[in-house]
């Protein structure tokens, strides 16, 4: 009998998205809990009540806490009730501009896939007649989402951290009790949006065009909504993209030259200050809609 490793890829092996996603899908289908990479940090994924409860216990999260659906653009189209122009807006942002974000909108409560949820889980996944679905998040989530869609399996997720401690962008930074709870761990190393200093995903209510949570790549989403649809959302408190995106060297007295090392040091100091401010503001952000 073949014994499969809990952590993939195995030492000395490289990521294989199709194979790795299939392994995760099989764990979810059997009622297990998966720890997987996403662009906004590592997350715990579940498709059964038992796995959801297991994740909550590991995170030391109170019962009844909100949780989100992790899905695909296709699942969003099937579940959400939005006018055509809003659906096209989401499609353009996600498919043409390759953006990842969470969509909140009214939903079809009679859809068969939602019947998999217990009344208590459904209540924790919805709010005031709306449902949140995170789409995107990287190639592994895309392939996993495709497998889930084909099987009619719903996947719920939350960040892989103890409640209130912020996103984790490397497996080695995740608390041991979280890793112990997972039935499979996909380790793809450092994740893309670590540069935002711990921000979770951006959440937008597309029915009312209202930002519910400023998260990773919010400044891009805000700029594109303004540029292509004349939709104006509040400014990002940490990113000012109104001025030209050019770094100019400091003017030096006559006879002196600008040294590359001095410029690099200045940029590093600026980044360090930004990250400290960002962490202070967003570390306590709620993890889920």
TrEMBL record:
A Gene Ontology term for the protein's cellular component = cytoplasm
Which superkingdom? Eukaryota
Start-end of Basic and acidic residues biased regions: 247-257
Write the record's keywords in alphabetical order, separated by commas: Cytoplasm, Transferase
Region (Disordered) residue ranges read 240-271
Its EC number is 2.7.7.87
Q: Where in the cell is it found?
A: Cytoplasm
| Catalytic activity, reaction form | L-threonine + hydrogencarbonate + ATP = L-threonylcarbamoyladenylate + diphosphate + H2O
Q: Which GO terms describe its biological process?
A: regulation of translational fidelity
Cite the YrdC-like domain residue spans from the record: 18-217
* Pfam families in UniProt: Sua5_yciO_yrdC (PF01300)
Q: Is Cytoplasm set as a keyword in this record?
A: yes
What molecular function terms (GO) are annotated for this protein?
double-stranded RNA binding; L-threonylcarbamoyladenylate synthase; tRNA binding
Query: What's the family?
Result: Belongs to the SUA5 family.
The protein in question is named Threonylcarbamoyl-AMP synthase
């Amino acid at each position: 009998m073949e014994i499969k490793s809990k952590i993939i890829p195995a030492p000395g092996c490289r990521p294989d998205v199709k194979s790795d996603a299939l392994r995760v899908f099989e764990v979810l289908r059997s009622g297990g809990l998966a720890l997987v990479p996403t662009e906004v940090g590592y997350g715990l994924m579940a498709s059964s009540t038992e796995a959801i409860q297991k994740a909550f216990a590991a995170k030391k999260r109170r019962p009844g806490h909100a949780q989100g659906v992790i899905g695909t653009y296709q699942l969003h189209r099937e579940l959400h009730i939005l006018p055509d122009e809003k659906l096209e807006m989401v499609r353009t942002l996600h498919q043409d501009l390759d953006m990842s974000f969470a969509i909140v909108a009214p939903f079809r409560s009679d859809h068969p896939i939602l019947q998999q949820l217990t009344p208590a889980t459904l209540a924790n996944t919805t709010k005031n007649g709306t449902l949140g679905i995170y789409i995107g998040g990287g190639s592994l989530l895309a392939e996993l989402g495709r497998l889930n869609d084909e099987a009619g399996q719903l996947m719920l997720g939350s960040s892989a951290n103890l409640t209130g401690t912020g996103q984790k962008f490397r497996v080695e930074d995740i608390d041991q009790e979280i890793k112990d709870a997972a039935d499979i761990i996909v380790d793809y190393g450092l994740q893309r949006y670590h540069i935002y200093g711990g921000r979770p995903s951006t959440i937008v209510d597309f029915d009312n065009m209202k930002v519910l949570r400023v998260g990773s790549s919010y400044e891009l989403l805000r700029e594109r909504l303004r540029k292509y649809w004349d939709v104006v959302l509040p400014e990002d408190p940490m990113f000012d993209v109104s001025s030209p995106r050019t770094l100019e060297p400091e003017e030096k007295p006559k006879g002196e030259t600008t040294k590359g090392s001095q410029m690099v040091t200045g940029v590093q100091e600026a980044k360090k200050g930004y990250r400290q401010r960002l962490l202070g503001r967003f570390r306590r952000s709620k993890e889920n809609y």
